[in-house]
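Q: what does this look like with magnesium ion bound?
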Amino acid sequence: MVPVTVNPPAITAYPDALHGVEREIAAENRRIIIHLDMDSFYASVEVQRRPDLAGKPVVIGADPKQGKGRGVVSTCSYEARAFGIRSAMPISQAFVLCPHAIFLPPDFPAYTQASVAVMGILRSYGFLMEQVSIDEAFLDVSPVGNFPDAQARAEEIRAAIRNRLGLSCSIGIAPSMAVAKIASDFKKPNGLTVVPPAALQAFLDPLPVRKIPGVGKKAEALLLEMGIRTVGDLLGHDVQDLIGRFGRSAIALHQLACGNDDREIVDSHDVKSISRETTFDMDTDDPEVIISTLDLLASSVCDTLAEEQLRFKTLTLKIRYPGFITRNKSRSLSHYSRDPATVRSLVRILFREVYDGRKIRLIGIRLSSFEKTDALQATLCL
Ligand SMILES: [Mg+2]
């Protein structure tokens, strides 16, 4: 339960070679991003309201039916992970791995309520914030000015979530969104990993290439064949050779390996889209697994839609196959809707249209084109 700090909380000194306005620009560009990810969120919410579950393997997902159940694991506690259970794994396999685990059906209203509470705490700090899933958010804490102060703020946030909600989270602090996300995953659960600019490459170099966003099992295997095991190996490798193997995505890969990611945090207060996505632990072409995952994602976007009192018109389905190949397909309704059954049907229609039968690495749903509904309108629309 001790916070982990990868690097001494030293402030990065920019090279002395920079003077005057260049120095100011460098300081201006010094971004400090926090990524916060709740630990085994659904399972933790269950344990928090049922203390008798503490310390036990808890699996949220489909009914295992003594090993004959269909469907997948949604989330599991760290105690269940110790048995090899992972999210998106078939529930029957989870049952084989740990028959005495406590299997619970998901209670989305409870998780949504906990999520609203977590995000409320985060928002209360006043930073630019982007919620990226039910239990994950980025904060742009650049205004605090330096990494030690950002770390102090992160520790406050983590304590507030633990004290007020009884839930734990892991936090990464870095100069970019991609690295902050890698850092939050670095020491889970209850981790705090700080990567100031001066320590960036030292942090990334020893990581397995799989940790780079977008590198899946297949790309990893290809890279291993080329003798590339770590991020450092990747950077030491001839770029032209990488482009020969991976095409243009090699350039993006190389940029991420250097920790470069220019994406900016988009404040989720102006909701432009609501999206949820899941990366499968094992690539899958099992229709049961895929459809039940899509249903989970659909419930989750609908919960957010209701919370934000919005109605949507456009739905986009995203499928990523191994090897960075991503397919998006959108469809717009002729009218605004907030009906979960409509979302589920539209998702299935798009899935049938776009899916080509290959194994899938990641799947996601995005809603966009919103209309705000106030409470009265919402009632009239039902
Ligand atoms: Mg999480």
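The chain has three domains: 1-7+27-199, 205-257, 273-377. The chain has 15 helices and twelve strands.
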